[in-house]
Design brief:
7-stranded parallel beta sheet; globular; 3-stranded mixed beta sheet; about 250 residues; binds NADP nicotinamide-adenine-dinucleotide phosphate; alpha/beta; Rossmann fold
Amino acid sequence: MNILILGGTGSIGSAVTAELVAAHHQVVGLCRSQASAKKLTALGARPVQGDLRAPKGWYDALQNADAVIQVACTFEDNMGAVDSLTIEAIGQEARRRRQPLRVLYTGGCWLYGETGDLIASETSARRPIPAFAWMEQNAGSLLEDPNLNCCVVHPAMVYHESGGGVFARMLQQASVGLPLEVWGSLHTRWPLVHRRDLARAYRMLIERPGLGGHYNVAAQSGVPVQEILTEIVTRHRHAAPMWCATANM
Ligand SMILES: NC(=O)c1ccc[n+]([C@@H]2O[C@H](COP(=O)([O-])OP(=O)(O)OC[C@H]3O[C@@H](n4cnc5c(N)ncnc54)[C@H](OP(=O)(O)O)[C@@H]3O)[C@@H](O)[C@H]2O)c1
């Protein structure tokens, strides 16, 4: 399958790219820098230069794709507006086709908001944290588009050994004896998934066009933040203040 991936160099996207290449798919990845182009090439994908903020620049790649995976995010103040440009480009391309365009869109566990003692399933109400309310809307508009064949993937908190992300940052802080930053409370519980397992879920979904709708991807549910931090500080014989709560989700 010819697959266009947006965000193929990111924490999640690089694992998805590697997984798709290993399964012999032809993967084209959007990149906005030489460094990202090199990373994609090393992963076995073909880089195409462009920026999420200017879809016209990568529309050709979209036209040539059998399927598209959106796992890119600018994480800037206007990230929702930038994402909407991608949604519009995908919709425009889909209207041109005879067959529905296969799309995997990335949501996230934070679209469920606080669930109290309940484990979120795909049928749970989603109450996105305010910063990501746009993501719920964009996911909904993709699912409603009759010209698309779409899955929305909701990753749990993703962990991996290195290369960015919240856990890599905590490990780095612990390794040099810095206090660990906690969002919210130590009693908050997070669902977790290793990015290789998550990547496998993306591949399985892209290969099964009969599947649509929302898919949560988690390997462990409800792990207390305190348990995660205790594991990190124990591994690093962390001597500095063990943690400090600095921000609320
Ligand atoms: N990580 C998690 O635990 C987690 C959990 C649930 C959901 N999610 C969601 O998954 C998505 C990806 O998260 P992530 O952790 O993988 O993020 P990340 O590591 O920061 O990766 C972001 C990706 O977006 C690309 N990108 C950013 N701005 C761009 C632009 N202007 N033009 C083109 N590409 C651009 C980056 O490319 P460059 O190579 O140019 O930087 C990179 O490939 C987000 O929507 C996030 O909300 C993440």
